[in-house]
Design a protein that fits this description.
The chain is α+β, with helices and mostly antiparallel strands. The chain has five helices and 17 strands. The chain has helices at 101-108, 112-119, 174-181, 220-233, 240-252, and strands at 2-8, 12-20, 27-31, 51-58, 61-69, 74-79, 94-96, 122-124, 138-143, 148-154, 157-162, 167-168, 261-264, 267-278, 283-288, 291-298, 310-311. The strands form three sheets. Strands 11-10-9-6-5-4-3-17 form an eight-stranded antiparallel sheet. A hairpin with a 2-residue loop joins strand 13 (261-264) and strand 14. The longest helix is centred in the last third of the chain and has 14 residues, at 220-233. It starts with a strand and ends with a strand.
């Protein structure tokens, strides 16, 4: 399970928590413009926009969990089990495998407008990376500073939704999360209000009672509500330090400590890393479960015209 969010002060920020029970040797990976991105069913991207994000590199291919390109377009894949439905090859569509989806869109598109055009006619084709590495069931959030989209390939087809909250978690489908948000429209950061009866005297015995009922469990539906509430109520200065710190505080509000979410006997899902990218400046920040120190990597410090991956 995972949570992805967007946030804006003077600059625009995109990032996520990655919640898993095991490591996939993930690390920060820079894909420069001239690294050839081979595709299974369409022409390779021999040149493209440079990318930075967290990925697992297998057979010299970057399998991105999330990434931002040099133009500021960002994209993340989040777990979507039982709902994700990838399709057979289609002669009439652009057949992109799910593990190619992030580099394909971010490699070709400089903004959300171009991404929307490119998404038309895409078929997320059911082709595994290898016999040992089957496809992960995912849905995606794509964002720039103007708008966010959620992409879901389900049994009824390839769905593109405008995402007005700039938040994504996991199951159920995105439309459920938007509908469920209506149940929490009365939450606010102030004191609780007496709407029950004028004949009963009530007392605000604690700060924060206006948000009474805000979910605090680790389910994806609850994390969607809490991340949305905390994001929209967050206040921070506009400096880079204040903005980045606040971004990580928002993610911390829905992070998973080890031991709270049992996957199977002896295995627990927890937040392995949290990331934040200043997409305007191409600065990628991250911290891990075992190290709360925030690391900073600038895309501009790499030779973006190179032809080799950089693994940090």
């Amino acid at each position: 399970m995972c949570t992805a969010i967007t946030y804006k002060t003077n600059d625009f920020y995109f990032g996520r928590n990655l919640d898993l029970e095991r490591s996939y040797n993930e690390r920060v990976v820079v894909t420069p413009r001239n690294f050839e991105l081979k595709m299974r069913c369409v022409e390779p991207l021999k040149t493209h926009y440079a990318l930075i994000g967290m990925a697992t590199v297998i057979e010299n291919y970057p399998l991105y969990f999330e990434a931002t390109n040099e133009k500021g377009l960002s994209m993340a894949g989040l777990n979507f089990p039982e709902n994700a439905d990838y399709k057979p090859f289609s002669d009439n569509l652009k057949n992109i495998t799910p593990f190619e989806f992030i580099p394909y869109i971010l490699g070709k598109c400089k903004n959300i407008e171009e991404a929307e055009t490119e998404l038309n006619g895409i078929n997320l084709v059911n082709i595994n990376f290898s016999g040992d590495l089957p496809l992960s069931p995912l849905h995606w959030i794509i964002s720039d500073k103007t708008k966010s989209l959620t992409i879901e390939s389900v049994k009824t087809g390839f769905k593109i939704y405008e995402n007005p909250v700039g938040v994504l978690t996991n199951n159920p489908t995105f439309l459920y999360h938007l509908m469920n948000l209506n149940n929490y429209m009365s939450l606010h950061e102030g004191a609780s209000e007496n709407n029950l009866s004028e004949n009963i005297e009530f007392k605000n015995y604690s700060l924060g009672l206006g948000a009474l009922g805000l979910p605090g469990d680790f389910s994806s539906a609850s994390r969607f509500i809490k991340a949305t509430f905390v994001k929209f109520k967050s206040k921070s200065g506009s400096s880079e330090k204040e903005s980045v710190n606040q971004f990580f505080h928002i993610l911390d509000s829905v992070s998973m400590p080890k031991g709270c979410v049992l996957v199977r006997d002896g295995e627990y899902e927890y937040t392995r890393y949290s990331s934040c990218c200043n997409v305007d400046k191409g600065i990628y920040y991250y911290k891990t479960y075992d190290d709360f120190n925030i690391k900073k990597i600038e895309l501009s410090s790499f030779n973006l015209d190179d032809a080799k991956l950089s693994e940090i």
